[in-house]
Please model this.
Amino acid sequence: MKKIFLLICLGSSLTMYAQDPEDALKLSWFAPKGTARSNALGGAMGSLGGDLSSNHINPAGLGFYKSSELLFTPTFMSNSNNFNYLGKASSSTDSRGNFGTVGMVFADGRKKNNWTSSAFSITITQIADYNNRMRFSGRNNFSSFSEKYLEELVNDQADTLSALNNYIFGSSLAFRTYLVDTTADSRGAVNGYQSLVPISTGVNQLYDAQTSGSYNELAFGWGGNVEDKLYMGASFIMPMINYNRSTTYSEVDATSNPNNQFGGFVFNENFSSRGWGIGAKFGVIYKPESFLRVGFSLQTPQLISFRDKVSSDMTTNTEGYAGTQSASSLDLNNGYPGTREYTIATPTKATFSGSYFFAVPNKPTQPLGFISADIEWVNYAGTRFYANTYDQESTDYYNALNKTNKAIYKNNVNFKIGSELKLNSNWMLRAGTSYYGSPYKDTDIKAAHMTVSGGIGYRTNRHFIDFTIVNTTTKDAIFPYRLNDKPNTYASLTGNSVMFNIGYGIRF
Model:
């Protein structure tokens, strides 16, 4: 159990609040995907250019194009997760396919004044895949999911009418099913709230979440080439997010005592989030020598507007106290899910890149291959939430959430390196690796993404095809619930995903 506090009371009312600090990481902490060639090189494409992934990494790379190109990159991914929660191990798996990267580049190879060439590109690529399964369980005699509702009612000083009706996606369900009940003074007057969960003797907790969806970018980019020395570019980005999560959480009395007024409860939640926004990326690549390239790119914060929907229900077995009781948010909200609209500003990202090309000793003008590396700085703590309405309640909530993000997360540096070797005039061999460090300030949380990748490519004058395999190892912390007044428990996650890429392109 680590001393990680949420710092704020994420309360709810008839207006639904469903954002957590983890929502900031869904949009910033992941190993990005791209074309099959880019993936094989560990994503180290910041100074290479000549690949449609440039539109999403460093648009200056579009300036290397002197002919047009059409690309398709279907992808298949298999995930497996291992959890350790309160000393108990468990695992889950999930597999999906998606479209990867699709796009076109229109190049003008004619020299105009100092411009050697220029290119315009339209691409759509999947930045993050949210298809996953997280399931773990353990015995806990320190805290309970019910305590977050207890904290909410106590901190809000809610009266019983408010407890019944104003927290319809959480605390009101707990109150209506007697998971949380009132306490009374010696005269019988209500003077507070209590949880019926017998925490001291322990409960068997189960967390099971199925997530789906993706984070995609539609990019319109331009790149120019000055005397085959200096390359400049910019891209206009339209992020599109589709995220769904179905969660079941339960606690069961570990003692099986039929007379302690608690047999267990089950909480179900269905959550969906849709977002779209705008952003920009700018970049430059310079070739001081024919064998050396250096690059820099900057991604501005993306402003993404979200609309969330949530519905939930709870069933509690209080044994002889009140029997089995059930309640649903749909019943308390006229049959409709709760909705919320807000805006997120994603972190700023800066990338410094370098590539070295090596050649056959007796043929220095014919490159034999290259090695390329990127260093990426990400401002994880800079994620910001903004209310789309101007009421004080919403403003206060998101200001507090932003303070929490700043307290929990830090800025960090990611590393990518890749190499390509020409086997002959048509075939190429590729390999790469990348490391994405922990975004958490708490050093006790072991979190990282690491990829190891490899692939082959075949090129002719008009056609090319790439085959890539990427293995990603993830370490992270999954919080089944967060409390303000107690240290929070979490499941340690060790995940592994294997991704297969096939890229097919046509030059014209």
